[in-house]
Every structure is written in structure tokens, then in C-alpha cells.
Fold this protein.
Amino acid sequence: MTATTGRAGRREWIGLAVLLLPTLVLTMDMGVLFFAVPYISTTLAPSGTEQLWIMDMYSFLLAGLLITMGALGDRIGRRRLLMTGATGFIGASLLAAYADGAGQLIAARAALGIAGATVMPSTLALIRNMFHDPKQRQIALGAWGGILTTGATLGPVAGGLLLDHFWWGSVFLLAVPVMALVLVAAPVLLPEYRSPQRGGFDLLGAVLSMSAVLPLVYGVKTLAVDGWDPVAALAVPVGLLLAGAFYWRQRTAADPLLDLSLFRIRAFSGAITVNTVAMFAMMGFTLFTSQYLQLVKGMSPLTASLWSLVPSVGVGAAVGTSSALAGKVRPAAMMAGGFLIGATGFAMMTLVGADSPLALVLTAAGVLAAGTVGTMTLTAEMVVSAAPVERAGAASATSETAVELGSSLGIALLGAAGAAVYRSRLDGALPAGLDGEAARTAQDTLGGAVTVAAQLPGRLGSDLLVTARAAFTDGLHVAAVVGLVLAVGASLLAYRLMRHLPAAAPAAAETPEPATV
């Protein structure tokens, strides 16, 4: 059936709700483990590096495969790819929920990342298929962007609520009923779309796009957390070499996964840059905040998750303000200003200590989140409007890759910096009386130190907690300084990339592309 022209009706708006459901689950899954880290540390006893991989493997494979899956969806059908991914996500969620070792959990998180990468590109690309009127599409894209923020906020909260009543694996079961509902509703409410100009699939480019991410991140994380390692040191240049090979392949392939000419459009390249840096900052520090509330302030997961809602007030204000200013203020000014607000939040984080009042931590987190989220309100429309319709899946995937890669790198690199400082500060500073195994566990992660302290008698346990918590906040300060420098630099870069763009104005309605149901 050919899609109708003109404005979207009831079916399209209900279909939008179907698309928002998996988007919500995928973004929640990035943060749902934040409050489960202490429980996983106790139950599975992962090393510091394994703990970071448990947190990051999902996001890295998701980021590494998004461009590939976006291009695949353009060729085989965006709805079909969405439903395939939803099925895989259900199975991987069950595997993660019942994992009985760190290695199994990392493997399950990898499967979740692969499945998620087949879902996410279709959600944004199908919005373009369903909403042809520019004003309606802007509303739909705003809802999609709001769900990204909502999922990032609700993930830790949902995890905290479940952990207060069930075992840590229960946090993964949230996705099962949601994805099952998508499988039922998608064939009825969502159109199918395949590019009418389907070419060959760039399998070599697909392999290169994924293989460039993992060795680079593995090397950076391992060197930061565990110190010198020859394999990790070799992985960094290998990853860079593979990234260069991917770039060369996209320039020379007859049917590339990614249309590099899009990056010559400043609105597109600027939006990609903004997404990457903003999510790097926000998600990188969400992990620090969640651990601070639980392991430094000693809150239960439920209490910590509820307190973590406080910064969302600033996020809501930022989204509302940005929406009100859209069309009146140039994007360059909005985005540069947002990054400067985020930099203020990072600066406030450098003042946080183990004994700081809770208000300081929550205010800093709120200012940081408000500034970074405020930069992202216009980027989805910029990306979708810049791409030709037959490349919408790949272009959407590029934007989402920036979001996921930024999130992953934020957790990995800021987390690795914090972990490296933590271990360095505890080297030679642990209280006398700890045996070798207890000392290694305490020095590996703050969660391990809290677990060891609970098993030690009186003064020895309290001395360990004081020392470990001080070392953790030292790591937090170093990560905050890195974030501060990055946010200021991103402010200058965003203004330079987008200073030529006028305040957003509605475009003329476009001719709908063919779709089938």
C-alpha cells in the first residue's frame, strides 16, 4: 500500500508511540546497571577491568554496529530489522538476567548491544517515513529526543527500584514485555520501507566499522585501569589503523555504508559533534554520581535512585527553554551556551568531597545535565533533514552512533581515569592488617572496598572506608577536570561549526517517499 500524502493521522501517532517504546528501553539499558554495580561486585566478583566491560560492552557494540545496521535496514526493510532486533533483545535480556559469572554477563551484554543496534536506526528513520509535514515531524523528533533523555534518567531509577526487591539480574527483565509488545504492534501500525535505489551491501565496511571500535577502547581502558600492558598498547594503534581503513573504504566503495559527503554539511557534522560530546559528559558522570550516592553516602539503591531524579528537574527546564528558544536564537549560541553551563557543572564537581552536603552533589549533577541536554534539542531535526530519504537509515544511525559512542566513551574514559586515580591513591595507603586478597579487592574498585570493609572488625573497617572513599572522590575530581576542559572546548567548536546557521525555520512540506505495509 502506498503511504498517504500530507499530514499524519491517528495511525501514525500511535505508531510513533510504538517506536518510542524500544527507544526508551535501549537508553534505559545503558544506565540500568549503575545501581547494580555493588551487587554485581559482591555476587560475581569482577575485576576492575571486567566491571568496566560489563558497563560498556553493550554500548560499544551498539555504537560499532549502528551504521552497519542502519544501512542494512535501508536495503532489507526498516520494520523487518526493527522486529528482528526486538526478538534478539528478548533472548539476550534473559541470558543477562541469569548470568552466573562476569564473563557470561559480558557476553550477554554484547548480545544485547548487537540486538539493540538492529532496533535503534529503524526508530528514527521510520519517523521520517511516517511524518512528512515538517511541523509534525519536528514534534515527533522532539518526542524521540525526549525519550532518549527520559531513558537515560529512568534507567538508574528503575534499576534501583528493582534492586530494592529482587536480585540484580531482574534489571534486565524490564525489556522483555516491552519488546514483546513491539513485536505484536509493529506489523499493524508501522509502514515498511526499503530504499528504491538499493545497491550492494558493503560487507568489508561493516566489518571495519565494528572492528575499529573495540581494540581502541580496550587498549585505552586497560592501560588506564591496569597500567602498562603490551597487548593493550598494541590495540590502540590497531584500532586507529582500522578506523582509517574504514574511512578509506567509505570513500572508495561503490555503495558505502556511510555517505561521507553528508559531513560537508555543517548542520550535519555539527549535530554529530554536539551529540558525541554531550553524551560523553552526561553519561560519564551519571556513573560517578550513582556510585557516589551508594558507596560514599551509603544509600540503598532505592534511596539513591530517587535522589538521582533531582537533577532531572534541571534537564526538564533545559529542554523547555531550548524548545522555546528554537526559531528565535541561532543554534550556535544555544549549543555553545549549553556547553558552558555543563562546564559549570563540572567545575562544581571538583568541589565535591566524601563529606560534602548532598545538595552540592545534586546541584552539580543537575547543572551538568541541564547544559549538555540543552545542546541536543535541535540535532535530530538537523540530521534527518540533511540526509536524502534513501539514506535516512544510515544517516539516523550515524547520529545514534554519535550518541552511543559518546555515552560509551564517557563511561569508559572518565570511568577509567577515575579508576586509575583510585588505584594510585590506595597504593601504599591501605590500613595495615589487610591480607593480600582483601587488599587487592579493596584496591580494585570502591565496591570491593565497601564489601571488604563490611567483613573487617571495627576500626580497621572504618579506616578502610575513609581511605577508599577519599580515593574515589580524588578520581572524581580528575574526571571532572577532564570534563570541564572538554566542555569548554566543545563550546568553542560548536559555535565555530554552526555560527553560519540561522535560527530554525519551518521547511516546506516534502513529497512522501514510497512505503509499503
The chain has a mean pLDDT of 78. Residues 458-498 form the longest helix (41 residues).
